[in-house]
Specification:
single chain, mainly alpha, 2-enoyl-CoA Hydratase, Chain A, domain 1, 8 strands, 6% strand, elongated, transmembrane helix, cell membrane, ClpP/TepA
Amino acid sequence: MSNQSVGLAPRALAMVIDGALMLAASTLLMWAVYGDPVSKWTDLRPGTLAINWLLPLAVCVLFWSWQGATPGKLVAGIKVVDTRSGKHPSPLQAALRWVGYLVSAIPLFAGFLWARVDAEGRTWHDRLSRTAVERSREAPADGEGLLIGYIASHWRGEQNLAQSFWINHVLLTWPVAAGVQGLVAWLATKSEGLQGVAIALLIAWPLLIVIEVWSAVGTWRSVRGYVDAGGSYLISGLARLSLLGSFLQIAFSLALGVFSEFPELWKLARGIDPIGNVRLSVSADGRTMQFNGPIGAGDAHRLGTLLSESPAVRLLEVASPGGRVTEAERMVELIRQRGVGTRAVGNCESACTLVFLAGNKRQLMPGAQLGFHRASSGTFNPAFDEIANQELARTYRRMELPEDFIEKTLSTPSRRMWYPAADDLVRHSLILPPPRTLDVALPEGDKPGQYAPLVDYVNALRASDAWFRLDQRFPGLIDDAAGRMRNAHMALAGSEHAAAGAQIAAQAALAPNVREMLLNGSRDLRRRYLQVLRAQLTAAQALGAETCQSWLSGSPVPRRLLPEEAMALEARWLTESAAETAPLRARALQATALELEVVARTVGATAAGAFSKLWTDGDAGPAPISCERASLVLNQLQRSTAVAPRELAERVVFQNVR
């Protein structure tokens, strides 16, 4: 072997190159396995030990015993040899040398610096493994330097095919390409330091193209030299086929990577998120915050600032197509710290679902939906997509999303959306169950003894599908009902009837509108309500004759004694009827004497006005007929076969004709 000594500079260059390659591989593998690219020194999980310790050991042993050099040493123009034979070290020597690295590094890298004072320029790990580091090629006479010389020799195709293909083309280029793709994937799902990452990508992509062109062209020329030297046509053909794929990949990267992503990266580099930013605003009373639009970079900070400036906020109304997952995760912490509720007033999709699920009380307004789908890494690499979705699954598990929801989410393509049914959301306690009747949960004040502001009563009514639809049909209804509800709640404070009185007061605001729909609505609308009346009448009769007569007279008190199912039927009827097109005429025509005579002959003399007191305050006098007669009227209406008289009777029973 040669006694030519290698200084610290080539060794350091080789270590930097090898370290960068191993760092890239470790980062990707740690992200793939654990969803976190960085591990701590105290991390003793099997996967971490294999990636960060066993993998470097295996790579070094393989390359030292095979080529006598790792990729970094090949670039630096140095190699490891057995001091006795001058050949490549054995696998055992290579393993001892790797362990010696640790010995040399522990005392402040004293083992590496020992080469400066050693007579043969050898380090501690050299001595331990009986190896030495020599130059694998002479430095160029023109003073280019070993690194420049290595780059030039590969470009000219002067290196052997194995080294050009496996070292320069595979091991040097592919990790760099994977690293750039990883940055793109990270950029698509994360948002920490987006501006810096975008700038790095704008620099890295052109460098990657240059490296790939250098690697592919040099290897192609090396194949030609390999064939000229009598090499195998099969091996050369396979190498060229692989290189053609590399050239196509370069073109693909240019077309779909650099050129297509450049506008967005350029915006990010200037501090502008191309997907936009969420619009945040606080209501006039300071208790509700509106959250609309895509979640972009910096939005979590904006949300935190606005929450700190608005201490009275108790509810976050969201409507968003999603956006940056990391920003949404930061918002989750802010929302949970404040203990505010969330309400989806429009579609809340993708990353927005994290924000919604962070609320201590979660409501889904009528027409709003929660949308879930797979994450997209922003690359065409399925491996990065899988890594991104593993992280998404972990995030949803932290949010306590049911496992079947997570499975369905991960099976929904990123370009589509899965909207679970509201019943499924209620079943898994992801949203509050919507009120089945017209009764709503009364809001509580911020402190004991305080009453909630009017807006909280408005929000409580808006959470009901029936009230929400009715307010769309009769604008201003909820505001009126909320005012009455709050006033009654405060007036009856301390009474056991406070809650019931508040509900009665709110529903009193609805009474004129219900009568309007019954008198002016369609035939089908009235016919469906008669089915509701049949169920309520049966329930009222079961409560006793006096209670039934009070209910039939329009008193709101006995209505509260009816079973929930009977009242739920009425709430469903109100919801469906509110969506019906309003009639063209302003009011129903009063029945003529002739029409009343027809009704009396076909249905009965007591049919006209039989249910005219319903949805009144009960102060207009007793019910026109008894509950028994009312039941007979309903039966007779159902048995009536003549279309015109039946339609007339179904309208007249609600008119006040007496």
